[in-house]
TrEMBL record:
Claim: Cytoplasm is one of the keywords in the record: yes
Keyword set, alphabetical order: Cytoplasm
UniProt subcellular location: Cytoplasm
Protein name as it appears in the record: Universal stress protein E
Gene3D superfamilies the record matches: 3.40.50.12370
The organism of origin for this protein: Thorsellia kenyensis
Length: 314
């Protein structure tokens, strides 16, 4: 049985095709579990109808919700007829990302699946503001789905950070690998590969320090990363040919390697930075995400606390 058993699928109200729901059905057929098809909706015009009483407005909102429930049932009809356990829930909420995260908190969902738009020319994924909020703030893993079938015998490429000495990066690396191995063991013999990037020799140091040896520096940095990668692969019994230590920026190396391996999914960890730290320091995970052309699984470290407040009981 997979670690992901209580799936929440964020339904896209703008189209009939629901790749995230299709991927969720695929996963539970392989792993077991249950699905909630979830849709937050809001129409400001219903709130502005001052001529109606609060009861009438509530009735109008409920009619819209009921209509959307029936629409989702129709989209999921083949799965429902086949006995796939899908719970359908539509709520009235003006902040979709907040509604999704509060639903995760209240019902202990362990995986959110959401469709990502695809750029037709570049094949990269396009993320909406709602997507970014969910990726940064959702306490459980978030799977962004591209509209294509899961590849038979595909690859899960896990991006690990071996450049930082911070203890939370080491524990996050191990969490990424263990969850990816657990997931892959249930999904069509998916292979797990590890990738890390190490920085190239700084040009300014080579210029400013006459005795600086760029080649020796590069060899030392590579050696450190190879040793760290060896320790990880041995701990999780991953073959050496499935680990990749490459020179360059993570923003370039990870998308390139995922394309080379024709990966079905890239697994990456993020601290979920928000606010000024994200704006000025930047977030490597988000830079990588901008260039991914396959499915993406984003996992937070243990102890992550979402900035979104739980739903207030009515």
């Amino acid at each position: 049985m997979s670690i992901y058993q209580n799936l929440l699928v964020a339904i896209d109200p703008s189209q009939d095709e629901q790749p995230a729901l299709r991927r969720a059905v695929y996963l539970i057929r392989k792993n077991g579990g249950k699905i909630k098809a979830f849709l937050p909706i809001y129409d400001f015009s219903y709130e502005m109808t001052t001529l109606l009483s609060p009861t009438d407005r509530a009735s109008m909102r409920q009619s819209v919700i009921d209509e959307r429930v029936e629409w989702i049932k129709y989209q999921a009809r083949y799965y429902l007829e086949a006995g796939v356990p899908i719970d359908i829930k539509v709520i009235w909420h003006n902040r979709p990302f907040e509604a999704i995260i509060q639903e995760v908190m209240e019902y202990n969902h362990d995986l959110v699946l959401k469709m990502a738009k695809q750029h037709d020319k570049l094949e990269s994924l396009i993320f909406t503001p709602t997507d970014w909020h969910v990726l940064r703030k959702c306490p459980c893993p978030v799977w962004m789905v591209k509209d294509k079938p899961w590849p038979e015998g595909g690859t899960a490429l896990v991006a690990v950070n071996l450049s930082s000495e911070e203890s939370y990066h080491a524990s996050l690396n191990e969490k990424l690998i263990s969850e990816s191995i657990e997931l892959a063991s249930h999904v069509d013999k998916t292979e797990v590969h590890l990738v890390t990037a190490y920085p190239e020799t700084p040009i300014n140091i080579a210029i400013e320090i006459p005795d600086f040896d760029p080649s020796a520096y590069n060899d030392a940095i590579r050696g450190q990363h190879l040793l760290a990668m060896k320790s990880l692969r041995q701990k999780f019994e991953i073959d050496e040919d499935k680990t990749h230590v490459l020179s360059g920026s993570a923003e370039q190396i990870i998308p390139q390697k995922s394309n080379e391996l024709q990966a079905g999914i890239v697994v990456i960890g993020t601290m979920g930075r928000t606010g000024l730290s994200a704006a000025f320091i930047g977030n490597t995970a988000e830079e990588v995400i901008n260039h991914i052309t396959c499915d993406l699984l984003v996992i937070k470290p243990n102890g992550f606390s979402s900035p979104v407040s739980p739903r207030k009981s009515e």
